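Posting here for the record, re: pyridoxal-5'-phosphate.
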Amino acid sequence: MPEAITYLDNNATTPVAPEVFEAMRPFLQDEYGNPSSVYKLAGKSKAAIDRARGEVAALIGAQPEEIVFTSCGSESDNTAILSALSAAPEDARLVTTRVEHAAVLNLAKRLKEDGRAVTELGVDSKGNLDLEELARALEGGGVLSAMWANNETGVLFPVPEIAEIAKEKGALFHTDAVQAVGKIPIDLSEIPVDYLALSGHKLHAPKGVGALFVRRGSPFRSFLVGGHQEDGRRGGTENVAGIAALGEAARLAREHMQDENGRVKAMRDRMEQGLLSSCPGARLNGDPVRRLPNTTNISFEYIEGEGILLLLDRDGICASSGSACTTGSLEPSHVLRAMGVPYTAAHGAIRLSLSRYNTDADVDRVLDVMPGIVKRLREISPFGRGETAEA
Ligand code: PLP
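Prediction output follows.
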């Protein structure tokens, strides 16, 4: 029997839903035709891709032909930003934020090294943008990339308002919605974004499949150059099983979102309130209201988040300190630093992120073990000895 796991790291990745696994299975076994071939076997693969395109489009209020399947959220982000810039004048500015995922920030860094003008907007102590500053940065147009939901804190940027500002300023707008899609309702028929990135493994599909929404008429330049797949928008034989899985995951998200969000939020809130009240020196990071229903980010002052993670892991609890991509680095999270969280708190930050597969027993388990872990680490911490909530 595998050890029982309490999985609270759903912003890093999610377990594949059983229905999703069943939806992809035929394309890993008997239905292996290349969707570009002409015989009936291939037709099944092609039909599966068409079906999935419809499901993904329906989840975000898009048209099926506005969806391009990719290999991951990072590829979608890169494709969107480079597409927008390919149509913009050479001196057009890329405007983004200091709290984006590495898929955007590291591309922006490279573009800057290549001579592109780049502005990275800051956030306030709750992780919110200043929309007047954003409007000023977009004066004269350019390209904007701003995330929908932050992967570390869950904080939501006001994408409908941002999209209106971008439109008014004549800027192209890409939103990295990798953490938002499947967790909150999104209707792009109402919100004028040009591009939106999503990733299968954040909504109970497997790793290795993503999608990019490209609004009809918005500039597009393929990132992966090759055959005529995806209507000439992405070369490479399609990941049929992965795409079928993403379609089913999108269908399930649409079906479950309304019922499940309330339950997930209630579990998150109970866990958060329990930890804040039972662990001295604990503080919440990020806007307490304007955020995803599944995420909490809590700092335990004067101790190391990595230490908490190791002890949680010994108890079979999976969580994360900051984003998984920066784990291993001694630098505290760039998101928390951008919010001005002091070093002593940023180092001790833990992200707990739930999904519809979590239960009240998972919350009980965390509430049971965390106070002891925090107490123990405080006792051995050179900074923490003697420090309490009042410190
Ligand atoms: N953007 C955000 C906000 C993310 O959280 C992630 C993954 O953690 C990505 C982009 C990258 O997605 P992928 O892992 O599918 O490349």
